[in-house]
Amino acid sequence: MSTMVEYRGYTISSTPSQPLGTHKWKPEIVISSEREGVVTTQSYTGDTTHATEEDADTEGVRLGQQMIDGKAPAVSDS
Questions:
Q1: pLDDT score of 55
Q2: Mean pLDDT for the stretch of residues 31-38
Q3: Nearest-angstrom CA–CA distance, 69 and 78
Q4: Which residues pair with 43 in a beta bridge?
Q5: Looking at residue 66, what DSSP letter applies?
Q6: Which of 4, 42, 63, 67 is least enclosed, having the fewest CB within 10 Å?
Q7: Residue 52 carries which DSSP code?
Q8: Whole-angstrom distance, CA of residue 43 vs CA of residue 3
């Protein structure tokens, strides 16, 4: 599963990952934007795990929106 969402001039691409040896899923996102012809991207991996890929995907999009809004919890660069 993979989701791409446009939000406030940014593109959030969510592609959850499944850590090896687990049945859990982690949110992984890339936030990108284009300003004056220059594209910037930043990747993040959420700290939480989810029972389903769909839940991790939804959480990834929500996390990206919070980061753009300046309300994100601590995340780790991937």
A1: 96
A2: 94
A3: 20
A4: 30
A5: H
A6: 4
A7: S
A8: 15
